[in-house]
């Protein structure tokens, strides 16, 4: 009898404990009666992920990345709140770019941003389903990233940094009135650079101006390539070739020694030694890239979004750099500059 009473009492306490535990495990309610756990899950599901890669880090490409992140914040996507960003640099190595591509595909972010042609090509080869937005790519059709610029119909779109050649050539001739030979230091393995070389020759040859090539496979070869042009050219034109831009300080030293003026298409190169540059503002290009990313995060298909091509060019000049390289900037050129770097 005593045993039965104790057993009944144990059952009663067990039932109370079960009820308490069950009650504790129920979803909490907020003041409005909403399910707090469900609300938390909803907030988590709204967080977007963007993976960003660049073939190398240098001022122009860094400005693109900063512009993308700033524009996404403007669009309502803030890192650390409702946006997760994963940035990886390939440090100038195409094999590393391939490894980053595989990692990003495995991570399956909402959008991948690929800055510069080698990184964009690597990403496009790695996935045909995750949206890819490239930036700082001169000719995305020639690079086989998209079949056309007005909507690829694929998972790829982006922002080009293609420049019109006529204003570039006009600037060269204003600074060097008797221009006959233009040196071009470039990486033969970079599609952007070989396209520009081809187009420069097409534009300059009919004007009686020769393009003298100085190929450099690696950043370490840039200064040697520039020195090889001494006595052969009136100036050196530099594009947004990533190896060249990465080693611009050494290029500047070679230009000073050889007294060959550097004229660039990357405005950040003026602070690093160029006499003048007429080109795209890469931060602004990043902002335009960010707008495209925002559209995709809000539900648009990448293949329906046309490739952005900039229409506005900025002129940066440095009379100090010109003097160090044996040139004089005409006052008319200085007066047109957006920024004079001293």
Structural commentary:
The chain has 342 residues and is an alpha/beta fold. 44% of the residues lie in helices and 18% in strands. The protein folds into two domains: 48-161 and 282-304, 3-Layer(aba) Sandwich (Rossmann fold); 165-280 and 313-340, Response regulator (Rossmann fold). It is built from 13 helices and twelve strands. Helix 3 crosses helix 11 and helix 4 (94-107) crosses helix 5. The longest helix is centred in the N-terminal third of the chain and has 24 residues, at 2-25. It is elongated. Residues 1-44 have low confidence and may be disordered.
Task: Looking at this protein, list some descriptive labels.
about 350 residues; alpha/beta; Rossmann fold; 2 domains; seven-stranded mixed β-sheet; five-stranded parallel β-sheet; about 45% helix; elongated; disordered N terminus
């Amino acid at each position: 009898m005593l045993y039965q009473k104790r057993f009944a009492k144990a059952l009663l306490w067990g039932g109370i404990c079960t009820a308490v535990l069950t009650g504790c495990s129920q979803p909490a309610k907020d003041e409005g009666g909403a399910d707090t756990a469900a609300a938390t899950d909803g907030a988590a599901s709204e967080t977007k992920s963007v993976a960003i890669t660049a073939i190398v880090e240098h001022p122009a490409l860094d400005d693109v990345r900063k512009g993308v992140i700033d524009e996404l914040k403007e669009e309502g996507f803030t890192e650390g709140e409702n946006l997760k960003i994963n940035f990886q640099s390939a440090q100038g190595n195409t094999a590393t770019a391939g490894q980053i591509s595989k990692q990003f595909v495995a991570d399956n972010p909402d959008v991948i941003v690929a800055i510069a042609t080698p990184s964009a090509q690597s990403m496009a080869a790695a996935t045909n389903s995750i949206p890819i937005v490239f930036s700082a790519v001169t000719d995305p059709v020639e690079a086989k990233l998209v079949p056309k610029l007005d909507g690829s119909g694929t998972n790829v779109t982006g922002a080009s940094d293609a420049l019109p050649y006529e204003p570039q050539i006009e600037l060269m001739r204003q600074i060097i009135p008797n221009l006959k030979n233009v040196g071009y230091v470039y990486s033969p393995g970079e599609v952007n650079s070989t396209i520009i070389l081809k187009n420069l020759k097409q534009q300059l040859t009919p004007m009686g101006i020769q393009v003298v090539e100085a190929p450099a496979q690696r950043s370490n070869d840039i200064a040697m390539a520039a020195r090889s042009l001494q006595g052969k050219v009136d100036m050196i034109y530099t594009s947004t070739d990533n190896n060249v831009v990465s080693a611009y300080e050494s290029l500047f030293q070679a230009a000073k020694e050889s007294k060959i003026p550097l004229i660039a298409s990357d405005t950040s190169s003026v602070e690093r030694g160029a006499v003048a540059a007429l080109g795209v503002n890469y931060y602004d290009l990043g902002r335009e890239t960010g707008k495209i990313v925002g559209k995709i995060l809000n539900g648009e298909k990448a293949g329906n979004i046309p490739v952005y091509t900039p229409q506005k060019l900025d002129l940066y000049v440095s009379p100090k750099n010109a003097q160090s390289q044996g040139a004089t900037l005409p006052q008319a050129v200085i007066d047109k500059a957006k920024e004079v770097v001293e």
